[in-house]
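Why do we bother with a discrete structure alphabet at all? Because it lets us treat a fold like text: something you can write down, compare, and reason about line by line. To make this less abstract, here is a complete entry for LicD/FKTN/FKRP nucleotidyltransferase domain-containing protein. Read it the way you would read a sentence in a foreign language you are learning: slowly, and without expecting to understand everything at once.
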Amino acid sequence: MSMEVSHKITSSPRAACFYALVTFDNRHLPAVISHTHTHTQASSGTMRTLHPFLLFTLAISAVPVIVTEIEIETAVETASSVPTAEPRVVVHVKPHSNEENPKDTPKKSTTSPSKGENSKEKSKDKPKDKSKEKSKDKPKEKKPKEQKYFHEPGWDAESGHYDKRYFQGKVPYEQHRPALRHLIRSYLTTFRDLGVETWLAHGSLLGWWWNGRIMPWDYDLDVQVSVATLAFLGERYNRSMHEYEYDLDDEDEEDVFTLDMSGSSANDTDWGRESTTVKKTYLLDVNPHYVAMTKGNGANVIDARWIDTSNGMFIDITGLRERDAERSPGVWSCKNNHRYRTGELWPLRRTEFEGAEAWIPYSFDKVLTDEYGPKSLVTEEWHGHRWTPELREWVKVPKKDPPPESKKEKDKEKDKAKEKEKHPSVNDKAVESVIVYEEVIVEV
């Protein structure tokens, strides 16, 4: 705008007010105010006329300035209080993209992701090391929950009935029954002196039922006690040694009966031999896992043993307890799941076993039939032995010789093998083949 126009506008109050109202130009307000002030004294009528316009002009011109300042201050406060989000690039990776192009890696974003996201992405990208997982799982599979306490040589059924610590070799068949006899006598005598309650069980109880003796094919003995008795033995007599003396009499010389197929049934034995005193040491060893309520992995179903330290033969001792007294009161069982009612066990019956005082369950017949079946009380042939009522003894049945017919067949097979050796398929005379038909040679 030129100077002349500006002077005309400022020289005329009405024009200035009109111009300010139309253009909202604040630059002319001071001129209007000053010009109005100089002419206030000259003309009061003019002042009255200009006063409303001045007030209106001042109000209109001040609003944009105030609003602008408020908006600027609010914008500045908002910008200072609210942090601006930095630009970030998000890369979407398709499934199995790393397997298709293992060398291609996504571009780095302008802002580094957090540690948690980094670890997650690395765990996704890196293939799992199966060898490490297997190595972690292997020790769990190899190591059982319970380590076996008692150990046996155990390469066959017979060697599994010796304690490995005292094993000196297999006891011959003719000697193992006398060794077991003194083993059970020493046990029953010692426990009687200690005032400990125990009774025959399993195969030993079955042997008692037949003739009050150990069955000749049995290589170990079985007894039972209560868990309270096991706790008493563990506190007072665990791993204690007990000496036992006995006289080696004629009964220990030959304790094997062999059935004579010709008709006689007794062995010829020298009954005039003098007796000799023998001293042996036996170990009472209580398994620390006897407190376990369940069978577990089956490594410690035997709770204690009475062991002959001279040869490693032993008596298995298992403890009975009420394992679920709330749901099954009066039911006693061992860790090998043999169950008995209270009335089937107590009161115990006093008897004799292998010449020593012994105790058996009250309902021994039911206990035996539940475990072995009814036939176990009537079957008279078992494990190569036959029950002889006259002797009241299990007699070993000798192995029968093969019939003569089978010998003839073996001789024929030997003769045929010799003929084949004499007549090979190609001989020294350059004959292509030789066929043998009942010792007749035919050249082709």
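What the structure line is telling us, in plain words: Residues 3-81 form one domain. DSSP finds 13 helices and 15 strands in the chain.
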